[in-house]
Amino acid sequence: FSLAHEIGHILLDSLTADSTSSGIRLRLTTPLPRPARERLCDRVAAELLMPAEIFRKHLRALGPSITSLETLAERFATAIETTAIRMAQLSDEPCLALRWQKALRPTWKEAKLYLSWAAAPSGGTSAETYRVVRGTLVRRGSSIFDAYLQKKPTAGFESLKLGTRAGRFLTQSKGFGTPPSRFVVSLVFPERTQNKAA
Predict the structure, then answer these.
(1) Which of 93, 99, 110, 194 is the most buried if burial means most Cβ atoms within 10 Å?
(2) Phi/psi at 48 (5° precision)
(3) What angle do CA 191, 61, 74 make, to 5 degrees?
């Protein structure tokens, strides 16, 4: 992914320079801020490694789940986290990808996991509709924390706030790596609530 990201920089840099080899002049009128450049290069890398139409075809065949996440990461030879983001962006069923890691200094002498990043479906107002606050905590007893402690995937209805909507949403999670760098990836399905489980 890092190599593909750097290819994105090369492509972006070529767009910012005058180019007449194809008879078309491409030039950005103002330079992109660094965060925007980095996001754009991430998108180029994702498209190079996991082309949208091909990835969607495989995802539709498997269905979005924590198990299919591992299968897709293996098929496309991409990291779990990168694949989870792509799944959230391209799934037909709304799906969020969340990454949790252990808080180094748990408060009240209790081990907790905090949300280090979240990815929402692409397009429209999805980013705000499904926004999850970075730093959100989960404690022992949640299926997310259970995934940190064990090797197998977990599932449960977790209390989360997605944008302005709070509820208990179906969440599938799995832990990866070993301490101290162990992390959990969760898939949250905002249309599958405890009241209308599907």
Answers:
(1) 99
(2) -65, -45
(3) 100
